[in-house]
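quick one, 63 residues, struct below
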Amino acid sequence: PDSPAADSGLKEGDIIIGLAGEPVKGLKDVSAILKKLKPGDTVSITFRRQGEIKTTSARLVER
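---
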């Protein structure tokens, strides 16, 4: 709730399979991709929800 991921439409149970045009196989991939980006960047997110592939985007914020 009240996060860039939630604002982008991601829901609990969604499986992220791509971030910023790069494939994601696990949390290490997500961390490596995010290290290349900066707050304010908008990234595409490809995810699987109940067997269906969907795409959305989110603006990164500083943590």
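The domain at 4-59 is CATH 2.30.42.10 (Pdz3 Domain).
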